[in-house]
Design a protein that fits this description.
260 residues; 23% strand; alpha/beta; five-stranded mixed β-sheet
């Protein structure tokens, strides 16, 4: 049984708390330099806790990519999503972010990115069979909406609903994890959740929620790293190209998004 199939049978993931280990490109006992990766669980199937183990597409992909370089991966550190960039740049607790992070101009003012490894749009999740079944943003008048703080999903809500006056800030709730947002949706505390499409599809496969419509944003995910670390950036880009060329990328994609 693939981990993707197991995820469907067990009903998804659970949120985790904060943890961290020292980063700063520490030297290992072997021939390579260790890097500490950071992520934000609760974003299935990219990263999640499953039976106490950190698993997901991003986890497998970064480990495969780094395996093609002279670097070595240290233990993973987990944070809330909006704590990842400070952990990378301010505290230097981690050396690379692998958390389905969209490459944006705002983020590029603070951090650097690897080449893109995934493309996504935003999806609007609602309760399956519920009264609220929007087909466009204009349908959201008075609706209660949720998204994970610090994400592009939250930005989409702000730009399409709050800024346009369709809904108010009071009707917009942000969460540390999309797992918590979807739980609030299922419990009828909010009416919709805006989240990256592949994650929305995973929730829809495991919960009584469904995708109402897609907002085509054309986002691209990349691994985040500190600015000025060109050697690490080049190594990650070369490793990413290698796993694409040798079929490893497709195997990982099949595990988490396909049928095996």
């Amino acid at each position: 049984m693939s981990r993707r199939t197991y995820l469907k049978l067990t009903g998804g993931a659970s949120a985790v708390g904060l943890s961290g280990v020292a980063g700063c490109l520490g030297e290992s006992g072997g021939s390579g330099t260790t890097i500490t990766p950071g992520t934000a669980p609760g974003f299935p199937p990219f990263e999640m806790q499953q039976d106490g183990e950190l698993v997901g597409f991003d986890i497998d992909l970064l480990e495969a990519v780094v395996g093609e370089t002279e670097y070595e991966i240290d233990e993973w550190a987990t944070f809330e999503f909006d704590g990842l960039i400070p952990a990378l740049t301010q505290n230097e607790e981690i050396d690379v972010i692998a958390a389905a992070m969209t490459i944006t101009e705002d983020r590029q003012e603070t951090i650097a990115f690897s080449d893109p490894y995934w493309e996504s749009d935003q999806a609007i999740l609602v309760r399956e069979g519920g009264d609220f079944q929007p087909s466009e943003w204009a349908d959201f008048e008075g609706a209660r909406v949720g998204a994970q703080s610090g994400t592009t999903g939250a930005d989409v809500v702000e730009s399409n609903l709050v800024a346009e006056g369709v809904t108010s800030e009071d009707n917009f709730s942000t969460y540390d994890s999309y797992v918590l947002a979807v739980e609030d949706l299922a419990n009828e505390n909010i009416d919709a959740v805006v989240v990256d499409n592949p994650v929305a599809e995973t929730f829809a496969a495991n919960r009584d929620v469904t995708v109402a419509f897609i907002e085509e944003t054309g986002e691209r995910f990349g691994f985040g790293l500190r600015q000025g670390e060109s050697e690490l950036q080049s190594a990650l880009n070369d490793g990413l190209q290698t796993v694409r060329d040798d079929g490893t990328y497709q195997e990982i994609t099949n595990t988490w998004f396909g049928q095996e």
